[in-house]
Amino acid sequence: MEFIPDWEKYTIKAIASKNNKIIVIDAFTKTYSLAGFRLGFCISGNSKLLSDMKLYGQDFAVSTPAQLAGICALLDCSYMQNTYSLISEERKYLLSELQKLPVKVYPSYGNFLLLKTEYKNICQRLIEKGIKVRDCSKFYGLGSEYCRIAIRLHDENTALIKVLQEIL
Known about the structure:
Helix content is 41%, strand content 14%. The protein is α+β, with helices and mostly antiparallel strands.
């Protein structure tokens, strides 16, 4: 959600914190690039539910490094603004370049784009060229001609475009 412009208008985190019938579960995985830490959180005004989750939840605590990483991420106010700017700029670039190729690209506000090509196994073709993408063949309604590409740094996005120009 944090990749959507003005996402603060659309989140219900503040409402959930005061409401005992709403629960928001979120993670630091994508937004703060902390996938390896397996760090997430739950927001709810339902103190009984939160107490029960603590009582009956996992038997192990979140590691100290993960806790520290989460606190630092939340305190770094400029990180998300810088990330949003980079992703937004590179998303526009990628969309523009992909539209010049024989692919169907599905625009998004997220940190990825969905592509459809006429080629089956597009993911394998990209992997053979050193570009890793998300294979969407197991997604309901999609096939091996679909892949999801992450919005990356400009040099990496340029490399993706060059490889796609070669194989398409």
